[in-house]
Design goal:
The protein is an alpha/beta fold. The protein has a single domain, classed as 3-Layer(aba) Sandwich (Rossmann fold). Helix content is 39%, strand content 24%. The radius of gyration is 18 Å and the shape is globular. The protein starts with a helix and ends in a 7-residue tail after the last helix. The structure holds adenosine-5'-triphosphate (ATP). Residues 21, 24, 26, 44, 46-52 line the site of adenosine-5'-triphosphate. Residues 12-245 form the ABC transporter domain.
Amino acid sequence: MAQQTDIRQVSLDASGVTVAFGGFRALTDVTLSITPGAVHGLIGPNGAGKTTMVNVLTGFQAPTGGQVTLGRRDVGVLSAHDLRRAGIARTFQAGRLFTGFDVLDNLAVTGVGLGHSRHASEVEAMRLLDWMGVPHLAEVPAAGLPYTDERRVGIARALMFAPQFLLLDEPAAGMSETEAADLAALINRVASDLGTGVLLIEHNVGLVLSVSDHVYVLDAGQIIEEGDRGVITASRAVRDAYFGADQEAA
Ligand SMILES: Nc1ncnc2c1ncn2[C@@H]1O[C@H](COP(=O)(O)OP(=O)(O)OP(=O)(O)O)[C@@H](O)[C@H]1O
């Protein structure tokens, strides 16, 4: 029991992360920390390096410099599968569901991949769909899901067996304002009820500012600002990054 508490207090830390693609630096010396039970936002203009950062944090992209650690573990040496087993889950911009399965099986497969029995995985999948308020989706074929349900199922799948950290890549893309508000409520519950540390990458800056305890702003591969909603909205550097320094007076 004491050990479980310790695990929940470990943070996911990127320290001095640099990623170069040939001569081009997508990230330069990025340092950030994701703590349990809190929502962190990662925003920035197009091409700022947000997806590259998620890929580094989830083992899909090896950093050229710096490192990512989970407690004392170097995340860079773990495969994407081992990372998930270590408690780091992500969603993708495209749903990536198994279209031949229904929703329950899509979730259960993840549980089996994590080493749980099929029965335990199905029980957890049903519990999770109930918790998210969408039990009616259980037997719906994944192939026929409306877009926003597909997004929700992607999140449910990432939440199987309560990961320590959840990284959400553009989860609100294509959602209406009402759907984005529902998503915001869900993200808050994931952090507060499950104790999961969330990193939210979004173009919808309003959504990020409304749910995040701490926001990082990337521009041209570097963190140019970080802090709570008040700090970000008051930041001249953030305004310049989004609108250009010349537009400041406008
Ligand atoms: N595999 C790659 N090879 C070369 N350049 C890449 C590669 N992946 C990303 N880049 C470049 O790195 C920069 C950062 O890309 P990234 O997709 O991380 O930005 P982003 O902030 O997620 O952008 P967006 O908001 O448009 O999704 C971009 O200039 C992109 O073209």
